[in-house]
Amino acid sequence: MWVSFFCLIVIYTAVHITKCQTVCNRQEPLEWNLNKHTIQMNWTLIGKLCKSDFECWGSPGEGQVRQPYNFPQLCPLQLQHGDKLLMYADETLKSYGIRLFNVSREDFESCITNADLKNQFVFPHKIKESEHVEAKWITPGHHYFIALHEGDSQLCKLGLRLNVTVKTQLCRASPFLRLCSGNGLCRTDFYKGAYHCQCHHNYFGRFCERFDACLDNPCQNKGVCLSNGSTDPKDRTYKCLCPPHFTGKRLHCESNIDECMSAPCLHGRCSCVDLIDKYACFCLDGFTGKTCETDIDICKDTSFNVSLCFNGATCIDGEGSNFTCM
Predict the structure, then answer these.
(1) Span 139-178, pLDDT tens digits
(2) CA 20 to 30 Å from 12, out of 129, 146, 170, 300?
(3) Which CATH number fits domain 169-211: 2.10.25.10, 3.40.50.410, 2.60.40.10, 1.10.1740.10?
(4) CB neighbours of 283 closer than 8 A, spacing ≥ 6?
(5) Do the beta carbons of residue 148 and residue 157 sit within 8 Å?
(6) What is the pLDDT of residues 16-62, one digit of tens each?
(7) Tell me, what DSSP letter sits at residue 284?
């Protein structure tokens, strides 16, 4: 037996020297699959080993915390609730003889257990052929497994320990409804405890059941968009609160209100130029003021002090640029 164990250590050491920087293969984000799968897990010291939180878990996203594991272990495994787990050992470990145990996180980290091992057997015998793990060991949550030989923890410390996370989906209110109401994807990653909805554009809510047209900000010219946030696909209305002096046929505040429509320039004889939030009047001769409201006394406003009337006649002002000499 000691000879077998020595050979096992030699094999592990040779492989570990060349492959100690294994980075576990992770596909993130993971999408919920409606079809259940059977996942095969090979217990081996050759490959599939990681020894740091980065190698095992990768870089956490914003607001996520790394797993504080810095010891050799098999690459962590993530399952959907309902998946089946099939475990087997490579030929070397199968001939050497190992048993698998479900343990606490503390025992997983230390490879030392003081509990009653009989109640922690994953299988009632040494692992030989491929065997299905009972459902009680893979309920939603975190599960920790270690391999021992005749109660000895050396194999565990060399890396024969496995962290399994089983996740459920929180993407629909009823099993009779579509995932994320058909308006999003049901996803997770290695740092989340379950599958959640990632909504498509314009959809929101826990199950992407609500629609918000205002997410596109359709209102122009700094208009404010108000959406009814309806769950009814036939009633996805919104409206724009336009700033002063803006409107639009499509109610998007795309048009500047034409202040000249109210004919602000008096007498109907002035030309109005529409501007944003204002207008300008170009008055005819004889009128002045913002709206051409003032009739200039042309007899008193002569240029260059030139009299409009000759031979002593008196100038009498008329409308606009008209005058009469008396």
Answers:
(1) 999 999 999 998 889 999 999 999 999 999 999 999 899 9
(2) 129
(3) 2.10.25.10
(4) 265, 270, 289, 292
(5) no
(6) 443 444 678 765 568 999 998 999 999 999 878 898 878 887 766 55
(7) P
